[in-house]
Write a structure and sequence with these properties.
The chain is α/β, with parallel strands linked by helices. It folds into 4 domains: 96 residues, Nucleic acid-binding proteins (OB fold (Dihydrolipoamide Acetyltransferase, E2P), Beta Barrel); 159 residues, Succinyl-CoA synthetase domains (Rossmann fold, 3-Layer(aba) Sandwich), CATH 3.40.50; 90 residues; 70 residues, no CATH class. A hairpin with a 2-residue loop joins strand 13 and strand 14. Helix 4 runs parallel beside helix 8, helix 5 packs parallel to helix 6 and helix 11 packs antiparallel against helix 12. The longest helix has 46 residues.
């Protein structure tokens, strides 16, 4: 409705054009301009502001979102336009944070608010309090535009998607804890393969949905598994079906980026099979329903058991067949080998030949060793050792007795030759004196050496005597043992002693004759000690 400007009692107001002047109001005419009072710019702007706000206190405007500006203050400045006009609009910071659908350029919306003016720029604007998409077509257009922008960044590339683990130990579910979705997932997991489930409760629609879902995805990825809450092996973002507006939180950019950045494989199960959200493109796998997501997360336990049993049976059959084939191959190869008797026959014959020669060789070797032992033992006889020691002592004594006179005669002859030379040189005399002293020292050392050799020989003789006594059987008899003889031969077994007619038992201090009980009484015998033999040597027996 067009308006005309008029004045009454020095104050301005707007009146519809063509209206009749009432009491107290005069229409402004071109010819009355000279009597009108002059208004300041602020007064005129305030009057316009009051008229516009009074007439358009709350309006709903439909139009396409044009330029959108979001300064640091948090307010949102935008334009609403159609094919013939543009309307400036503003959304204050507090209202912008509560909007379910933030306005984006090119989006057709229905904005609800109040009309006002901005005196600083002499324009009017719409203070928006609510924004709603004008229709499904506008939402789909905005969704497609956002999808293309995110796809251009590579967030939906197949190379980014990770395979699901075959049998996860822990499954993280991001959904509403009070809905039927979580019960369907838990029931399906219990039927297929029971696993541990951790539920992160979130709002699945409304203004808080996008922020809580993104925070849940990041929170599960931030777990390190060392604390009381384990790190899931796979994530499921689930929600039941709904309208486009109900599922809009899963189309938000913050949710899509969080799903694409998740290091844990993620299954998107938002809505029914016909519903599509942007998180489906960023997830590693899309499930048509939450129940299908549970089926994708775990295999069927009974199927795994059946498969394992089948593989075990195949393995057993393969092993049996392999053993059978190898056994047949071994038998085939064994036919080409010579008979074992032919391989060991010559060696057995050689062994028999050597075994026949072995007793004779052993006997000959024992005889040789006995002769060598007898020859060595002959040198240990006391009489021979004593004789050799006496001879050595006599010879040493004779040489010692002859040494001093010989040295004296040698010194005398050297003195005579020295006197004959008539060389009374002091140096020569000193050399003679040194030679005499050295000769006397040699005589003393020769005597000491002879005494040392005699002592060493005596000690060696004493050691040989101790060895002879320790090897003799007299020392064994002294320890409580006895020697049994029958007819002069040694008796070493009880069978020989039982068949002998008479036994002779030798003790440390003598010998005793023993006869059977039905024979004559034994006669005591005096101990017979070992004496020198015919050759003057001591006997060991």
């Amino acid at each position: 409705m067009p308006f005309a400007f008029s004045f009454a009692r020095g104050r301005s107001r707007l009146a519809p054009a063509g209206a009749q002047a009432g009491p107290g109001m005069e229409l402004f005419e071109e010819d009355a301009a000279g009597n009108a009072p002059a208004l300041s710019v602020s007064e005129l702007s305030g009057a316009v502001k009051r008229v516009i706000e009074g007439e358009f206190g709350r309006v709903r405007v439909r139009g396409e979102v044009g330029r959108v500006s979001r300064p640091r203050s948090g307010h949102v400045y935008l334009d609403l336009k159609d094919d013939r006009a543009v309307l400036a609009a503003v959304i204050w910071k507090g209202t912008a944070g509560r909007l379910a659908t933030p306005p984006e350029e090119g989006m057709e919306v229905i904005a609800t608010g109040r009309l006002t003016t901005f005196p600083g720029q002499s324009k009017y604007q719409l203070i928006i309090e609510e924004v709603a998409p004008a229709g499904i077509g506008a939402l789909m257009a905005m969704l497609e535009k956002r999808r293309q922008a995110l796809a251009a960044e590579g967030l939906f590339d197949a190379a980014r998607k990770r395979p699901l683990p075959h049998l996860p130990q822990v499954i993280g579910v991001i959904t509403s804890p009070s809905g039927a979705v979580i019960r369907d997932i838990l029931h399906r997991l219990a039927d297929r393969f029971p696993r541990r489930v951790i539920v992160w409760p979130v709002a699945v629609q409304g203004a808080a949905c996008a922020g809580e879902v993104a925070a849940a995805i990041r929170g599960f990825n931030a777990l390190d598994g060392a604390g009381p809450v384990p790190r899931p092996d796979v994530l499921i973002v689930a929600r039941g079906g709904g309208s486009v507006e109900d599922l809009w939180g899963f189309n938000e950019e913050i949710v899509v980026r969080a799903a694409a950045a998740s290091a844990i494989p993620l299954i998107s199960a938002v809505g029914h099979e016909t519903d599509t959200t942007l998180i489906d493109f960023a997830a590693d796998l899309r499930a048509p329903t939450p129940t299908a997501a549970a089926e994708m997360a775990v295999p069927v336990r009974l199927d795994l058991l059946a498969w394992s049993e089948g593989m075990g049976a195949r393995l057993a059959r393969a092993l049996a067949q392999g053993l059978m084939r190898r056994g047949q191959r071994l038998r085939d190869v064994a036919r080409a080998l010579p008979r074992p008797e032919a391989l060991v026959g010559q060696a057995a014959q050689r062994l028999d030949f050597l075994s026949e020669r072995l007793p004779r060789a052993l006997g000959a070797a024992v005889a040789q060793k006995r002769l060598a032992l007898g020859a060595a033992a002959g040198g240990l006889r006391l009489r021979l050792v004593s004789e050799r020691l006496a001879q050595g002592r006599t010879r040493a004594a004779g040489l010692g007795a002859r040494l001093a006179p010989a040295l004296g005669r040698g010194v005398a002859r050297a003195g005579e030759r020295l006197g004959a030379l008539r060389l009374p040189s002091a140096g020569l005399l000193r050399r003679v004196a040194e030679g005499r002293a050295r000769a006397e020292g040699l005589a003393v050392r020769s005597g000491a050496a002879q005494q040392a050799r005699l002592r060493a020989a005596a000690e060696r003789l004493a050691a040989l005597e101790r060895l002879r006594r320790s090897l003799g059987h007299e020392a064994t008899l002294a320890r409580g043992f006895a020697v049994v003889r029958a007819e002069g031969a040694l008796v070493t077994t009880a069978a020989v002693a039982a068949t002998a007619g008479a036994l002779e038992v030798e003790f440390r201090d003598g010998r005793l004759a023993v006869v059977p009980q039905d024979g004559p009484a034994p006669s005591p015998r005096r101990p017979r000690r070992a004496g020198p033999g015919a050759d003057g040597q001591g006997s060991l027996f």
